[in-house]
Amino acid sequence: MEQTPVAHVLIFPFPAQGHVNSMLKLAELLCFSGLYVTFLNTKHYHKRLLRFTDAETRFESFPKFRFQTITDGLPDDHSRSVSYIKDLITGIESVQPAFRELMISNNLNSDNWPPVTCTIIDGLIAFFMDVSKELGIPSISFRTTSACYLWSCFCYQNLTEAGEFPFADNDMDKLISCVPGMQGFLRRRDLPSFYRIKELNDPFLKLAVTQTINSTRASATILNTFEDLEGPILSEMRPHFPKIYTLGPLHAHLSSRRTNSFAPSDSSNSLWEVDRSCMTWLDSQPLKSVVYVSFGSIALMTRNEMLEFWHGLVNSGKRFLWVIRPDSVKDNDQKSQIPTELTEGTKDRGYMVGWCPQEQVLVHPAVGGFLTHSGWNSTLESIIAGLPMVCWPVMGDQQINSRFVSQVWKIGLDMKDVCDRLTVEKMVNDLMENKRDELARSMDEISQMAKKSVSEGGTSWCNLEELIEDIKSMKLQV
């Protein structure tokens, strides 16, 4: 009897911390199902993954999993910082011929591995799906952002046809009327950051819109969200997108499948060196007394913005744990003096590190609130931890995420487009005292819904089961 081909998934993320992190979690979830999984990473980011994490040893427990690498199209000495994101995009776009060669070579079929029967490609690099299509391999788009962000990108044509974009004046509080499901609360300033440009041919605007449209040509779309959180927006999207699988929050889904609990693992997918000394410091702090501050893996701030945040945190009188990446301050002069009141205030109540184990920090009993850039991974991690947020969005999807956090879900406060010490001080005090109970009630309700979604029988749990069965059936289409 002829043997049935075996399902083999190739996963390819955009080379950035948040993208690699969430797609590795998806890879591990698929490994539990017994699928063959190849994770294709760029050589530069794979070296960092091996250097700073236990990913290699962690995945050794899955005999049907392997890492593969590909160039990112940039020279070895390139910094690959967010300041050069245009280079990153241009570089990875140039890799399409190398990707095609990899897909048709025997490298992916060697060592008794079956041929690739399905690709899951980051929607930010949806142009790689053209290669899959050419080779007759079904391709699924994975979007690491929120559904509300994706929908606002998809509605670009609505905005231009209605004359709502480009903006005719500087009134950033003017309501946007032509993004279905968001009328009445979405302002200009809440649209993704690239909508603030004046030129329609801006490369970042074109990338976001084009790749969103390209994603709709996939066999299906995977989103790291859950139905109870973004159901109304998902309902708007479904007539326009291929089948949508909501599997999130992925980090909690993975914990649920691993150990039947939501406690974060000690394992990490960080591309930065983790400083765990902050956990010891947190152990010595009172219950719910610490504000955790982190602006993610790529967001940048000016030195003046850093000092305003620092003054606001110290002046609030609250304890704080602040993650400041070595490359996070754009114009930082290491020789410039830090005001004495900041160093003294931090000595008394603060702790600062270059990077930390965020999932563990958020669930630590000493942490009572999160001052965040509103990246989607951070937002979902805060929801699972049940921690209300103050949002200071910087770029991309963060602006619209923060509006939903504050106005729709009511689990945080929005501080976008403002950065002065008085506002920081007020927002921190509102988060930790004045509005604490009100925010906590909303957050507790949504946090419980999130946990239910990734528990056995929940919507995200069942959607993953359906995705796996659909991937198995895709082998028949090759």
Automatic annotation (TrEMBL):
It is an enzyme of class 2 (transferase). Residues 9-79 form the Glycosyltransferase N-terminal domain. It catalyses: 7-deoxyloganetate + UDP-alpha-D-glucose = 7-deoxyloganate + UDP + H(+). It holds the Pfam family UDPGT. SUPFAM superfamilies: UDP-Glycosyltransferase/glycogen phosphorylase. Keywords: Glycosyltransferase, Transferase. One of its GO terms (molecular function) is 7-deoxyloganetic acid glucosyltransferase activity. Its EC number is 2.4.1.-. Belongs to the UDP-glycosyltransferase family. This is Glycosyltransferase. It comes from Aquilegia coerulea.
